[in-house]
Amino acid sequence: MIERVEQLLERVEKPARYTGSEMNTEVKPIGETDISFAFCFPDTYEVAMSHLGMKILYSIINALPYAVCERVCMPWIDMLEGMKKEDIPLFSLESRTPLHRFDIVGFTLQYEMSYTNILEMLSLGGVPVKASERGDSDPIVVAGGPCASNPEPLHAFIDAFMMGDGEEVIVEVIDTLNDCKKQHLPRQERLKKLAGIEGVYVPSLYLATYNEDGTLMSFTPTDPAAPATVRKRFVRDMDAAAYPETIPVPYTQIVHDRIMLEIMRGCTRGCRFCQAGMLYRPVRERSLDKLMELSQKLVDSTGYEEISLSSLSSGDYSCLSSLCEGLMERFSDKRVSISLPSLRIDSVVKDSLAQTQKVKKSSLTFAPEAGTQRLRDVINKGVTEEDLLEKLRDAFEGGWNSVKLYFMLGLPTETQADLEGIAKLAQAAVRAYYAVPKDKRAKGLRVTCSASVFVPKPFTPFQWCAQDPMDVVKQKQSDLRKMFGAARGATFHWHDPSISYLEACFAVGDRKLADVLYRAWELGCRLDGWNDQFRYDLWMQAFTDCKVDSAFYANRPRGLEELLPWDFIDIGVTKKYLRLEYERALRGQTTRDCRLGCNGCGIERTKGLCALCE
Amino acid sequence: MIVVFEKGFALRHIGHLDLMRTIQRALRRTTLPIRYSNGFNPHIQLSFAAPLSVGVVGMREVMDVPMVEDVAPTTFTEQLNQVLPGCLRVRSARAVSDDYPTLMALVAGSAIRVQWDASDDGERIAAALPQFLGQESCVTLRKTKSGENMTNIRPFVTDATITKGDHGYTLCCTIANRKEGSLKPVVLMRALCEIAGIEQIPHIAYRDAILARNGEGRLIALEEYENA
Lengths: 614, 228
What we know:
The complex is a heterodimer. Chain A is α/β, with parallel strands linked by helices.
């Protein structure tokens, strides 16, 4: 007998997305453990398998003798339609177990535009989409990741959110639910037990009320089990924190097809638009010894030919040069190359440039974010044009010919001069290349400038700011295109502003957006992060059908005294500090890097958490 | 090192380049003295006798993995099998001298087996084989790297037989390598379905062996080829 799934695989575009059995994915048989966890990534296999967080939690859960973790990804359209037609439920990659048979279904929330995929995956997996419609025999649906910092648009679909570093809380969640399962507790009791874990938010145990103008009036727990403030969990010691010593090695190429070595978590820079920079405070480094040990184990167990040093700001790692040298020396016999993906322009030291070059030369990325010093001061991007041009000169002299420059459009206080600044900076980059003598530079210059649209994010100093209306964004993009049309040697890329618009709505959204999300999914929205699948018209119809005004979220500046939907979460950084930073931004006043002295962001309230503010 | 390996059922959708990368990564997990190419992006040297069509299970695939120093074939097999996923298995390895011909140049054809479930349509396909074999020519659409073209596929196929077992039908045949290339089992199946006047039905194809011609011109399993 040839199974139905196998028959379907013959007909889809990339069957290897669904076949599993990759190296290092052999897990315990699902029936032989006390509790099972489906790690769901709400995007396709290639994106899912590139995600470091999944690999960390996968190894932590599978190391528990009584638990098993399997992976589930969002199928691409052809598979999705085939599965619906053939009545095949969404299944795990390891054992092809239908999603509804797992005890716990966990989603990672990396990106707002993946939310419809969560609904689609639950539905396809036989799990009731709405939390209120789930019964005692249905899985408990949990979620974590950066977008859990504003969980409200998803409150109707997720039973419990986990705030902060997942490796700190996941085992407690699994153990609690395992106890509940043994005691055959009803669903509601299980959720109350979960609410008792620090860092866990169970939305069904809270009530939100609204003012007439649509803003939040009150947000309160309705059950004694639920804390009024949900406090984020922190990993204190990165060397002690679990990190996988072996990771799955996919057969087909994925987005980041290499070993990702997380050298540190957090960032000290304090860029005011950057949510990750605020969420992942304080900065915590892994030691050189630990990183050498982990990389050896990972190279031995995966055979990968590349290690990428991963963090928010790898150039700031205190022992970067020693680490690069050490890795290069250790793995030169196996021809393993080292890459630095996240480089801030003020931290690219010539040394590390020379080191990475020894093995492999890839394109260099710089993120000045704004076109003028004034605006860079507003966003606290402590980088000057001279810095940038100096680094570019170093890079061109070092043999690089391809650089990418990242900018943001529509930042708070932006003017026409700031837009012109972007084009001028690109031209200066081109001039810096031609200033290097012909025999000393590599041929074929490529300067690629890419401008995303500013999206206000919770827990940033710009959480109160509005996004530019879409016609304004389009005008700015078209102005920039014209300026670049005149500039030689540099190309300009821009993003679809309608996707950024929805991203803004959901980033700062409240509970009312759950209806819109559900309606959009009903209308057929899914895979919204893929330009060719995104249906702005259907999304707008969903807002209309639900009588919800999208501009209320994306284009309205929020009042400083307003109760924000995510205010009940203590993320570490205080609202008071964010407000202070916002006010400094409006004055164009910069804030120092916190390695130069504590700025009192709020992390210091917990003793021993931040090594820098002691 | 001439290596015979199995590319199992679970891996039949993995393409040639992905398979190559998978084996290169497996080799890097061993301590075998593999040979790297020179240049900017050094990679592990290895060459396959004949790429396997996506969707086909490879029972005795053959590759050449050059070593920088002598290794006992049993050591090679043990080490590599330890680090390969379960659906990829080394069956045997044989050390050959440096003047051994390149595998690709030796390939004369493949021993192919196709299985499908018992059904009325299955029976019709089985009945279509004698008609196919009786024709001098069978022109059908064939996709190649250079595009689609109409090809007479009849000369590719020899020694074809169909047997009926408890679970269904099994077609065994030899598919020759010709100047216009090779023939994918799925194209042969489509031709048989056309003759039978039915839609394509689900089937599984296996390449049981890659074939070479020995000194006497007889077809043998490639891995048994002895350098004269």
